[in-house]
Amino acid sequence: MMAGFGNGTRRYPRSRGRTWSRTGPDRATLGIIGVICAVAGFFALGIVLGPVAIVCGWLAMGRSWAGSRPVPALVALVLGAIDTLLAIIWLAGAATPGSGLF
Q: ∠51-65-47 over CA atoms, to 5°?
């Protein structure tokens, strides 16, 4: 029988080609999405878009502080943190009676 001749790909399906799944966005896309969410969070829904930007930036950095950090990921992380902090301060100021920020 010649069916077992050579190294078939049935036994090792991931031996050639991609070795990881491409179901989600890559790191560069996550960094850009994080920057967009962070900038949009300064104008509307900062309490929601700030943490989204932080998560996107963290995932775009590869969930690690070590190694080289892509610029969009770092910008998304920092702007998301600032955005979240400002939203929390705004909500705390608006929650106290008679001392809103307006």
A: 10
- Based on the number of CB atoms within 10 Å of its own CB, is 47 exposed (0-12), middle (13-18) or buried (19 or more)? middle
Put simply, whether the predicted model's pTM sits higher than 0.85 gets the answer no
CA dist 58 and 63 (Å) reads 5
Residue 17 structure tokens: 């080609």
Q: Which residues contact 32 (CB under 8 A, 6 or more apart)?
A: 72
Instruction: Note the pLDDT tens digit of each residue in 16-50.
Output: 555 555 666 788 889 999 999 999 999 988 899 99
pLDDT class for 93, splitting at 50, 70, 90? confident
Helices (H), 1-102: 27-41, 46-60, 71-95
Residue 73: which of 95, 87, 57, 62 has the closest Cα? 57
